[in-house]
Write a structure and sequence with these properties.
By secondary structure, this protein is mainly alpha-helical. The protein has twelve helices and no strands. The two termini are about 35 Å apart.
Length: about 280
């Protein structure tokens, strides 16, 4: 028994697996170290070249940006702007997802209606959202709802096309087999349609997230009293590059938070539908 255990412990396969795991960890540490080195070198060059080589008013310096960011995050008005922009992004994103998903599934299910209305949707989608922004501002005012409407418009079109064409990828043969087996419409939706739409739905969510942010910032640029977009407009008018970069960093953090939320939602949905192991 002891000899058998000794053979297992010293087997070539076990040694190879341990070596592979060790090499994998070393490679990851090396890659992480190189990334940090690139970031540090970029920031160092930026700090040194800003002023003597590149106009400081145009690109600022990392040290100035860090101070502006700290000032933004330590002030009550800064957090009020962040809350306003985050609220508009999340609400516009949610409204756009709801409208686009329902419209895409309805026109994807009723093919005749889809053939009639899809070209009209495409024509409306071809209008630049920047051109629609003044109309929303006139209709909803310069408060939060105009920004929500602008963000929702861009998101809705992406979700519509993701679900509309996703409905066409559901295999007709599989649907017929499930129907022959006596499945109801609810079972067909649960076991065939919805699992087939998970991929296009999540692709639409992740693709439309940045469009919600862009829509809100466009609206805040055009007319607003607060929000990160409003502060970006003020800082750019004052040639405050450090403030502009600080606002951009906040927007990047909001985008990362939204992406993390969508990744978590993706895992939960897949587990509920039995597409991912627990």
């Amino acid at each position: 028994m002891a000899i058998a255990e000794l053979d297992v412990e010293s087997s070539p396969e076990t040694d190879t697996a341990g070596i592979d795991r060790g090499n994998w960890k070393e490679r990851n540490l090396t890659i992480a170290g190189l990334r940090l080195l690139v970031v540090a070198a970029t920031l160092g060059l930026w700090q040194v070249l800003s002023g003597p080589v590149v106009p400081r008013f145009a690109v600022s310096r990392p040290s100035d940006i860090a101070r502006s960011l700290a000032q933004l995050l330590s002030s009550r008005s800064g957090w009020a702007d962040i809350r306003t922009t985050a609220f508009e992004i999340l609400l516009g994103f949610a409204v756009g997802v709801g409208i686009g998903t329902v419209a895409g599934m309805l026109l994807g299910t009723f093919r005749l209606a889809g053939r009639v209305l899809e070209p009209l949707v495409s024509a409306f989608n071809s209008i630049p959202k920047v051109a629609l922004a003044p109309m929303f501002l006139l209709f909803f005012g310069i408060g939060d709802w105009s920004k929500v409407a602008i963000a929702a418009t861009g998101v809705a079109f992406i979700m519509f096309y993701s679900l509309y064409y996703g409905m066409h990828t559901v295999r007709a043969e599989l649907e017929e087999i499930v129907k022959v087996m006596g499945a109801s419409r609810l079972r067909l939706l649960q076991y065939v349609t919805l699992p087939s739409l998970i991929s296009p739905f999540m692709t639409g969510l992740k693709t439309s997230g940045p469009f919600a942010i862009i829509g809100v910032i466009i609206g805040e640029f055009l007319a607003s009293f607060n929000g990160i977009g409003h502060e970006l407009y003020v800082d750019s008018s004052d040639l405050n590059a450090a403030g502009v970069f600080a606002g951009i960093i906040v927007l990047v953090l909001i985008a990362l938070a939204l992406n993390l939320l969508l990744d978590t939602l993706h895992k939960i949905v897949e587990r509920r539908l039995g597409l991912r192991g627990r």
